[in-house]
Amino acid sequence: MLSKSCFLPLVAALLATPACKSTAAEPAAPTEAEANAAVLTGSTLIGEYSAATLAGRVQGVPLAGSLVRYPIKVYRLTYRTRTPEGAETTASGAVLVPVAGAAPLPVLSYQHGTIAPSSEGQAPSHYAAGSDVWSVVSVVASTGFVVSAPDYLGYGASKALPHPYEHAASLASASADMLRATREFCEKQKVSVNQKNYLLGYSEGGYATMALHRLLEEKYATTLPVAASAPGAGAYHKSAFARYILGATQPLNFLSSYVWVLRTYDRLYTLNRPFAFYYQEPYATQLQANPFASVPSQQSQLFAGPFRQAVLNNSDPGLKAALADNDLYDWKPRAPLALFHGTADDYVPFFNSQDAYDAMQRRGATQVELHPIPGGNHFSSAVQYTLGAYLFISQH
């Protein structure tokens, strides 16, 4: 769930690798005309960057110079999408285009990890120096992928909106509409792309990647077929994760981000519970004044007893339904999918990926792989995730 900028700590591994039911509204499946409708509303060239420039951004990493193949052009796109409540709005993202000749290029949709509101400038469309898209994702693009990097709602052009943190449907729809806008942009700019769409992301980005994969196969199977996806360390089993958190006796360092999840679900599913329903004092008052206030690492000190029991006993129908609506573990993907997860993940427990793999196997999925990262925690596993995910998509 919570992540440092998804790929910033991962650059060493990548560059060492050879290139190769709900109360919240969900949109109905689009008609063929809707699936092909224009969504792009604007584009701005941010800059063109030589291979030498890209290599210079990672000059401390061995082999960087030999792995950066092409210069890239980076654009900021704006496009039409919908809020979780169903209203049309304008969102944004970055598109990274390798200057790689005439051969049709594959498209890679990159879903970023958690960005706190105070760090909104790290969103992809800002292309800020030091951000993941500026550094390692630019290297990925330079190897021959057109990269579509959605900001999500709540960042960039839609920063006036609250970010729907860990809300599956809106993460998926914002990412899918950005992918549509990217392909529309490529057509306008005469950038030749093939039909392959690859999906990558870690932590919140892993969760968004899983949601996007499911949405594309359910609603855009013809227009946006998935070639392969490799989500990493996502909280796919939200219902079980909630029980894990509310039953924990050990310190949990990610509780401030779980407060964000609860606030999102309370709003989007119109639960409208007072802060005192979720939290003990003084934290109920502090969080009402500042939703990102510090909280203790012991869940028993933070959460109110009745709320804790409601989760553990599944006795609150509204809350149970909201959590279940965001479960992403139990469905049948058709395209190849590889789940990467550290077995000692201290932010998003490994059972999220194990449960997804087991459920998909029971449903008869034949192209799903589970890649445990032995002993890896949420941050140390990111390096091996990057290597494994890049190799996985290169085989498909």
From TrEMBL:
The protein's name: Alpha/beta fold hydrolase
Keywords of this entry: Hydrolase, Signal
KW Lipoprotein (keyword) present: no
Domain of life: Bacteria
InterPro entries: AB_hydrolase_fold (IPR029058), Lipase_secreted (IPR005152)
GO MF annotations, alphabetized: hydrolase activity
Signal peptide coordinates: 1-24
